[in-house]
Amino acid sequence: MTSQTIQAHREAHAEAPAETILALNNIEVIYDRVILVLKGVSLTVPKGGIVALLGANGAGKTTTLKAISNLLRAERGDVTKGNIRFHGKEVQALSPNELVRRGCIQVMEGRHCFGHLTIEENLLTGAYTRKDGAGAIRTNLEMVYSYFPRLRERRSSQAGYTSGGEQQMCAIGRALMSKPDMILLDEPSMGLAPQLVEEIFEIVKELNSQQGVSFLLAEQNTNVALKYATYGYILEAGRIVLDGAASALRENEDVKEFYLGVAGEGRRSFKSVKHYKRRKRWLA
Amino acid sequence: MLYDIFVDPFVQMAAQPDFLLQVLWEGFVAGILYALIALGFVLIFKASGVFNFAQGIMVVFAALTLVGLHEHGVPAYLALILAIAVMGLLAYTVERVVMRPLVNQPEIILLMATIGMTYFLVGFGEFVFGGEPKSMITEELGLPTGSTAFQIGERGLLILQHIDIAAAVIAIIMVAGLGIFFNKTRIGRALRAVADDHQAALSVGISLNQIWAIVWFAAGIVALATGIMWGARSDVSFALEIIAFKALPVLILGGFTSIPGAIVGGLVIGFGEKIGEIYWGPLVGGGIESWLAYIIALIFLLFRPQGMFGERIIERV
Questions:
Q1: Which of A121, A129, A158 is the closest to B314 by Cβ?
Q2: Which of residues 195-234 of B touch A (CB under 8 A)?
Q3: Chain B partners of A129 at a C-beta cutoff of 8 Å?
Q4: PANTHER family per the record (chain B) (predicted)?
Q5: CA geometry: angle B254, B256, B261, nearest 5 deg
Q6: Which domains occur in chain A, in start order?
Q7: How far apart, in whole angstroms, are the C-alpha atoms of residue A257 and residue A169?
Q8: Shortest Cα distance from B170 to chain A (angstroms)?
Q9: Min Cα–Cα distance to chain A from B296, Å
Q10: Which of A69, A76, A163 is facing B203, going by the closest CB pair?
């Protein structure tokens, strides 16, 4: 343990329980120097929390996650305004590799397993940045297998030939191999059967409570996300329009109508649908 | 006519089996060297998707550095180590000056960049070491030079050059070494991960820049080995660059992403060329060795565009 981490732990215990691990302050993202995708997004993730980032297709969920993990630059995107703090330090200038080293890793949308590598090799690539020796990595691998017993069964098959659920588990397991404090999880429910979605979210919850990993998850499946998250943000066209505790969001009439698919009273015609009146969020 | 094409060559083969063996051996050795050059291409193509036009000139440049240093009075083994260091420096420079600024550009731009590199290396090599052909320092490096004649049957004779045997052994060791490196080490695994999905590789914290420098270095070492072997058979000169084009049909046959493919493809082209030249060449007045490989590749393209061992894209249905 370095003196820095000891310091961090001391601070963690000294401060109030609602310490933040990740804070975005008024982030603006531009692709290809012209396309404005995020128009001032601010959010915080408390240490040990599960925060959901909700919204429709193209709202900017993935862009937000990539802005944090710094994978944007590989797609010619740029954070042009605002700042991102991880463990209280600004991180927007760091390479993804350095960020993983510091404990923040992204699980990309669509799983992105290495198809020609076996499941076990996939998991081991997750430990690429670690310097704490083969023994520690081995222990970590066993830990991953204990959370995802199915991966142990498929350890020597090529990831490309495993099922969608197994690939999602593999992607999350691979991220766990880097010993992260925080996982950015992008659309874990995509293309999976409802039962599997529940299974994966259960494991996320366990990892959160047992390993103390914080999660920021981008989801279209509002229902499931709000069931497991503690707090939620709703993104619309690159802006956060609503945020609140998950329980409060579940009860919110507009969220119910737009994202959970349950109308308040009876059927309504499309004519009467108003655009959601955006709550103005001012800079802190 | 049909007899000349379909029957006579085989009659000749059967009449002089020792000569056929000699031809096959020649084909084997040529094939191994083609395979080594193709291997350099495959390494870089797999990890970065760049078709490295400069691979051929890297072979010459590596050999030239080795011989040139020795000419300036550096002992052979030290020159070998220095030549490896120079290839490392080249890899580092290429990653910094070419790959990093051009990342995310269309492939054609990277191809153009490697063509540019080719001419830079030609000019730089001539400037430093001079343009005249040099002979390889085979003996100084401790490589065998003699030849052994084997008696086959009553009057048959098979002559094996020792350097060719050495070339085969070195090539096999090199391929085995690369195989272990790719499958058993952390960096090797990362290399394959990058080849599969470079975005995902980035997301788990693999540094693409580091990986690129490593593959270019590996390709540089393969180039140096190839350069020594080719140099020992002919001279070290920029004319060697042409052999790089022989790697193209090998790649088409073997697939651009497969190491076993490069080896088998190299051997097929090597055997095909020598046998074609000796037994079928006379029908058209000889000289088919220089173009037969391309014809084989062309026919192959019609039936199996991904090559023999080109990685199948795994897609779930």
A1: A158
A2: 195-197, 199-207
A3: 204-205
A4: ABC TRANSPORTER PERMEASE PROTEIN, BRANCHED-CHAIN AMINO ACID TRANSPORT SYSTEM PERMEASE PROTEIN LIVH
A5: 30
A6: 19-47+56-102+182-187+230-284 (3.40.50.300)
A7: 32
A8: 28
A9: 29
A10: A69
Q: Which of A174, A171, A172, A156 is nearest to A117 (CA)?
A: A156
- Rounded to 5 degrees, what angle do the CA atoms B50, B91, B199 make? 45
Q: What's residue B148's pLDDT?
A: 84
**What pLDDT is attached to residue A176?**
94
Q: At what angle do helices B162-184 and B208-233 cross, to 10 degrees?
A: 170
Cβ pair B111, B51 in contact under 8 A: yes
B39 token code pair: 């291997």
What backbone torsions phi and psi does residue B237 show, to the nearest 5 degrees?
Answer: -150, 170
Render pLDDT for B61-77 as a digit per residue (tens, 0 to 9). Answer: 999 999 999 988 889 89
At B203, the amino acid letter reads S
Helices (H), chain B: 2-6, 8-15, 17-48, 55-71, 76-93, 100-102, 107-129, 162-184, 186-196, 198-203, 208-233, 243-254, 259-275, 289-303
This model's pTM is above 0.80: yes
- Residue B101, pLDDT score: 86
Per DSSP, helices labelled H in A116-264 are: 119-125, 133-147, 149-153, 164-176, 194-206, 222-228, 246-251, 253-255
Nearest-Cα distance to chain A for B316, in Å, is 7
Residues of A in contact with B206 (CB under 8 A): 97, 125, 128
pLDDT tens readout for residues A73-86: 888 888 999 999 99
To probe the interface with A, which of B203, B209, B214, B313 has the most A CB atoms within 10 Å? Answer: B203
- CA gyration radius for chain B? 21
Q: How many residues does chain A have?
A: 284
- For chain B, the structural domain boundaries read 26-241
Rounded average pLDDT over B82-93: 95
- CA–CA separation, A91 and A83 (whole Å): 8
Task: Give the nearest partner residue to A161 out of B193, B196, B314, using CB atoms.
Answer: B314
The tokens describing B278, both together, are 């000796």
Chain A partners of B100 at a C-beta cutoff of 8 Å?
A: none
Closest CA to B269 of B288, B247, B287, B286: B247
Rounded Cα distance between A241 and A258, Å, is 13
The reported pLDDT for the residue numbered A280 is 45
Q: Which run of H or of E encompasses A36?
A: strand A35-46
Q: What kind and span of H or E run contains B22?
A: helix B17-48
For residues B96, B98, B101 and B103, what is the CA-based torsion angle, rounded to 10 degrees? -110
- Apex CA B208: angle with CA B207 and CA B212, to 5°? 125
Give the model confidence (pLDDT) of B182-232 as tens digits.
888 999 999 989 988 888 999 999 998 899 999 999 999 999 998 998 888
